[in-house]
């Protein structure tokens, strides 16, 4: 279940007995110092003095301290002006406690209680055993113009493709804006590729295009003497069907540069790519995809189709077995290290926990299910009361201490009776 920050703040405020929401009935002062709502006339002069108004719609949103309230017109005056005039039909909230502190308490409670408090379960099978490429499934795009861990030529347009794909969430769509364009992965993006020296490497990728002699795979090496060797695979036939392209090359023992290339030749032609990989040497360390923060299980594919490698057989009845010896390492990048030698071209299936999103705007959401939402409110209340403790007069701090004790007891009760702890990690 997804809940927005505004919704969580509202529930939190009601739990503290500290919330009112209204809509402005007419425009405030031109200098942004007032908010007007006739619905507020049910309270006497100065009732809202010392409280906070949070404007949540219109042009000038934000939180301000209230310095005065006039009952006769329902006018709130703020100590520091908003950015401009608060118009009519603008929604706003009234709080005794600073609502921005409430937001911070909610955000920190989500962030600081992973995985013991709030988490999402994930299943990720974007890695292939024995594959030396990074992001060969083209699932990760930190920028919109090319996939992570790849570099493109200037006149090749790349886009994440979510419809025409072989597997997973994304494939790669390439469109030529000129003839002979490329998408490359080299030792610059993946330094470990130089460990492929002195072996035979097989480079494969699925491709779909309706343009004959447009796309093929290429392996390029440069040795210490500066000799460049280019090995080209066969072109796609242009059948507008998915075809598994392949090229094999022997890597020099003194290789100093290696390039795995998706070659796109014909101007204005389109191609789709998925499940690219380079195999040939036992691999133990795998560059982990994003959003795989806490792994709990790692499995590998033990069976697949008759005519293709198991990772290319997308049948739902593929069998998986547990990898028993593995660990995650925080090196330059996050790495999954598998101690045993697994057969090549099998899918790795990773299961685990990832943090719930921390909402930073009122409309942004987080995925806290109903069984954990009350627990979040209790933790947020504790965080919030600790935050405001020093700002309140000494005579009121005994009340704050009492409230904190009440919420601490509630958090303990909810953790024991309602909250499910994450599973134990398997090794």
Report on the structure:
The protein has four helices and 25 strands. The strands form six sheets. Strands 2-7-4-5-6-3 form a six-stranded antiparallel β-sheet, with no helix packed on it. Strands 9-12-17-14-15 form a five-stranded antiparallel β-sheet, with no helix packed on it. Strands 10-11-18-13-16 form a five-stranded antiparallel β-sheet, with no helix packed on it. The chain has helices at 5-15, 99-112, 370-388, 397-417, and strands spanning 2-4, 20-23, 34-36, 52-55, 62-70, 75-78, 91-95, 120-128, 151-152, 156-161, 171-176, 181-186, 200-208, 215-223, 228-232, 243-250, 255-264, 270-279, 285-287, 294-301, 320-322, 326-330, 334-338, 347-354, 365-367. With 427 residues, the protein is α+β, with helices and mostly antiparallel strands. 15% of the residues lie in helices and 34% in strands. It has three domains: 19-96, Elongation Factor Tu (Ef-tu), domain 3, CATH 2.40.30; 109-117 and 358-417, no CATH class; 122-354, Galactose-binding domain-like (Jelly Rolls, Sandwich). The longest helix has 21 residues, at 397-417. The model is unreliable at 423-427 (pLDDT under 50).
Secondary-structure map with pairings?
Blueprint (H helix, E strand, L loop, with lengths): L1 E3 H11 L4 E4 L10 E3 L15 E4 L6 E9 L4 E4 L12 E5 L3 H14 L7 E9 L22 E2 L3 E6 L9 E6 L4 E6 L13 E9 L6 E9 L4 E5 L10 E8 L4 E10 L5 E10 L5 E3 L6 E8 L18 E3 L3 E5 L3 E5 L8 E8 L10 E3 L2 H19 L8 H21 L10
Antiparallel strand pairs: 1-25, 2-7, 3-6, 4-5, 4-7, 5-6, 8-24, 9-12, 10-11, 11-18, 12-17, 13-16, 13-18, 14-15, 14-17, 19-23, 20-21, 20-24, 22-23
Helix pairs in contact: 1-2, 2-3, 3-4
């Amino acid at each position: 279940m997804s809940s927005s920050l505004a919704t969580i703040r509202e529930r939190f405020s009601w739990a503290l007995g500290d919330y009112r929401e209204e809509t402005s009935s007419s425009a405030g002062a031109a200098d942004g110092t007032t908010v007007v709502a006739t619905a507020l006339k049910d309270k006497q002069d100065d009732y809202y003095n010392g409280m906070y108004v949070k404007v949540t719609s219109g042009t000038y949103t934000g939180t301000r301290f209230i310095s005065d309230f006039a009952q006769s017109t329902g006018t709130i005056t703020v100590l520091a002006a908003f950015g401009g005039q608060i118009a009519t039909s603008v929604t706003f909230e009234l709080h005794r406690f600073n609502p921005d502190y409430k937001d911070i308490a909610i955000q920190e409670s989500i962030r600081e209680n992973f995985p013991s408090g709030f988490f999402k379960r994930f299943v990720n099978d974007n890695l292939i055993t024995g594959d030396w490429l990074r992001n060969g499934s083209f699932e990760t795009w930190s920028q919109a113009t090319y996939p992570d861990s790849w570099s493109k030529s200037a006149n090749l347009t790349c886009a994440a493709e979510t419809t025409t794909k072989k597997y997973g969430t994304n494939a790669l769509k390439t469109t030529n804006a000129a003839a002979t364009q490329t998408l490359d992965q080299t030792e610059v993006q993946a330094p470990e590729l130089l460990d492929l020296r002195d072996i035979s490497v097989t480079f494969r990728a699925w491709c779909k295009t309706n343009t004959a002699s447009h796309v093929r795979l290429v392996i390029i090496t440069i040795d210490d003497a500066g000799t460049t060797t280019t090995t080209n695979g066969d072109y796609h036939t242009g059948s507008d069907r998915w075809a598994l392209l392949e090229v094999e090359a022997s890597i020099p023992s003194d290789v100093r540069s290696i390039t795995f290339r998706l070659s796109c030749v014909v101007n204005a032609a389109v191609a789709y790519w998925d499940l690219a990989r380079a195999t040939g040497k036992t691999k133990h360390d795998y560059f982990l995809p994003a959003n795989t923060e806490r792994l709990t299980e790692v499995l590998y594919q033990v069976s697949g189709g008759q005519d293709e490698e198991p990772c290319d057989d997308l049948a739902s009845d593929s069998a998986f077995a547990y990898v028993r010896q593995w660990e995650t390492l925080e090196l330059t990048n996050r790495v999954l290290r598998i101690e045993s030698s697994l057969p090549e071209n099998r899918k790795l299936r990773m299961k685990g926990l990832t943090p719930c999103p921390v909402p930073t705007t009122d409309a942004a959401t987080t995925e806290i299910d109903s069984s954990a939402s009350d627990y979040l409110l209790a933790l947020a209340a504790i965080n919030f009361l600790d935050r405001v403790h020093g700002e309140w007069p000494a005579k009121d701090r005994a009340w704050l201490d009492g409230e904190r004790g009440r919420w601490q007891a509630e958090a303990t009760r909810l953790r024991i009776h309602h909250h499910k702890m994450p599973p134990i990690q398997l090794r």
